[in-house]
Amino acid sequence: MTLECKICGVSDTEILNFIVNHRFPPQYVGFIVNYSKSKRFVKIDKLKKLIDIDKKKSKFVAVLVKPSKNTLEEIKYLNFDYYQVYDCSPDEIKQIKEKYRKKIISAITIGNNQDLNSYKKFLPFSEIILFDSKGYEKSMGFDHNLLEDVPSDFKKMIAGNIKIEDILNFKNKEYIIDISGGLEDISGKKSKIKINEFLNEINKA
Question: In angstroms, rounded to a whole number, what is the distance separating the alpha carbons of residues 22 and 104?
């Protein structure tokens, strides 16, 4: 079993080039497209230049929080493979998929078991279901043990304050590890040292 991963919240050209050219690049790289509350938010003009590169072996993910029609129109020709969508109804996400013909990561925010079960409504049109915390913009965590009884017949991505030292906990799990804050230094910027350590640990696992 190969443990897959996503490095999210990339906003810097130097860091992005380091990631995609790494010996063990992540399967997915995420960019905060329209959520200005996040310190990792990237304005459209900068985003266009940032992701206009050879992605090598990685897939690029637009992270969208209840996106407006204007936002979706602005990014429709950009170098994205997936749209990761928060705070939209199943019908809204289905319409986004049909209109823009992108693969979909539907984000489910978890506080309890009742929240967890909502994923079923998103399965028919989602390539991946992401389980994240209610405080996703702050890289807050949730109890990952809540996912133990979730079936294994679809692709699952897991976020929520994951750190490098947590990787071994996921070694035999069928999850795509989604990490952001755990790869940042005390200034809040992505650290090449931490990224390198994380990708090497993922490869070992």
Answer: 25
